[in-house]
TrEMBL record:
Name this protein carries in UniProt: DNA polymerase III subunit delta
PANTHER family: DNA POLYMERASE III SUBUNIT DELTA, REPLICATION FACTOR C / DNA POLYMERASE III GAMMA-TAU SUBUNIT
Database matches in SUPFAM superfamilies: P-loop containing nucleoside triphosphate hydrolases
InterPro entries in the record: DNA_Rep/Repair_Clamp_Loader, P-loop_NTPase
Any one GO cellular component localisation term in the record: DNA polymerase III complex
GO biological process, one term: DNA-templated DNA replication
Length: 319
């Protein structure tokens, strides 16, 4: 069981033992808290019935909808077991294909589960199509919606779900977990990863695996010193690389927000407005980036400029 999942499991298993299991669940919390792992384990537990052997591999009654490879080239990479890029959204065609499957009976027992990860990446038309299934769920069908940004979901979808919130970990717990998972990293890198992760085990491990420590140091310098010469922003762009994929850019955006949040928690300054405004702008940018045309060069410069704008007024860049 992953750290921080005790309460979600209690709620789930209490419901399983109850007389009437709610048909739709919203698993909410920041990225990297293990919500998808919970969803898969909970779905298998839901579908298991006494006396019915359960498969060790993929379960025929657990259907997972997630973002598909973005084109045929990326599809081939997936088939070959290589890293691949995905589409921006979960499409209405995927929802309709799932609904067609729900017209048949479950394979092994009387229940089946549909996992959507991340549900906050549903196309608008896909959200509307899903709503119909949530309003009139087929008998024995249960939905688990994984959401990093639940506010992006339609209110009518949220209102039909029972919400389970996944808490961020305390820094001490996260540091201990990371020391077990990545015992070879030095203490300084581990401390930076824990600080940047804001309580998310997945984000902390991502920080280590993507070698984000140099970016963390550069971003912190830009926020503290400003960057009137644009030199630090140039170094940041070079460190990020010319062709970062979407997942790396998502991690970099999370890191930038974490750097600003850390400054807000640890600094004493007369005027906080530029720091607060920059943080709000980065939050908006992180929410918009997955659905906009992906130009990594422009996005990196925008991140750097927002960080520079957060420096104390006397050190701010002329951006």
């Amino acid at each position: 069981m992953m750290l921080g999942h005790d309460e979600p499991w209690r709620q789930w298993r209490d419901a399983l033992r109850g007389e009437r299991m709610h048909h739709a669940w919203l698993l909410a919390g920041r990225r990297g808290l293990g919500k998808m792992g919970f969803a898969e384990a909970a779905a298998r537990e839901l579908c298991a019935e006494p006396g019915v052997p359960q498969p060790q591999g993929p379960h025929p009654d657990v259907h997972i909808l997630t973002r598909l490879p973005k084109d045929e080239k990326e599809e081939r990479k997936r088939e070959e077991g290589k890293p691949y890029e995905v589409k921006r959204n979960i499409t209405v065609a995927q929802i309709r294909a799932m609904q067609q499957r729900l017209t048949t009976r479950p394979t092994l027992g009387s229940r089946r589960a549909v996992i959507i990860d991340p549900a906050d990446d549903l196309e608008k038309s896909a959200s509307n199509a899903l709503l119909k299934s949530l309003e009139e769920p087929p008998a024995g069908t249960f939905f688990l919606l994984v959401a990093h940004r639940p506010a992006k979901l339609l209110p009518t979808i949220r209102s039909r779900c029972r919400v389970v919130r996944f808490p961020a970990l305390a820094e001490a717990d996260l540091a201990g977990w990371l020391a077990e998972q990545a015992p070879d990293i030095d203490v300084k890198t581990r401390e930076a990863a824990v600080r940047a992760a804001s309580g998310s085990p997945g984000a902390a491990l991502d920080f280590v695996e993507r070698d984000l420590a140099p970016l963390d140091a550069l971003m912190t310098r830009i926020v503290r010193e400003g960057d009137q010469s644009f030199e630090l922003r140039g170094q940041l762009a070079e460190a990020i690389g010319a062709r970062p994929d979407r997942e790396r850019m998502a991690a970099i955006l999370d890191l930038a927000r974490s750097v600003l949040a850390g400054q807000m928690a640890g600094e004493s300054r007369v005027d906080w407005s530029n720091l607060v405004d920059a943080h709000a702008a980065l939050v908006r940018l992180a929410g918009e980036a997955p659905t906009y045309n992906f130009d990594p060069g422009l996005l990196v410069m925008e991140i750097g400029t927002l960080l520079a704008s957060a420096a104390p007024a006397s050190e701010r860049a002329d951006a």
